[in-house]
Amino acid sequence: MTPPEADVAGTRPDATTRPPAVSVCLTTLTKRADFLRAARAKRQASKGFVLQARKRAPGEGESGAIRIGYTCSKKVGNAVARNRAKRRLRAIARAVLPTDGQPGWDYVLIGRAETTASHPYLDMERDLKRALQKIHGNPT
Question: Residue 4 falls within a domain, yes or no?
Answer without folding.
Answer: no
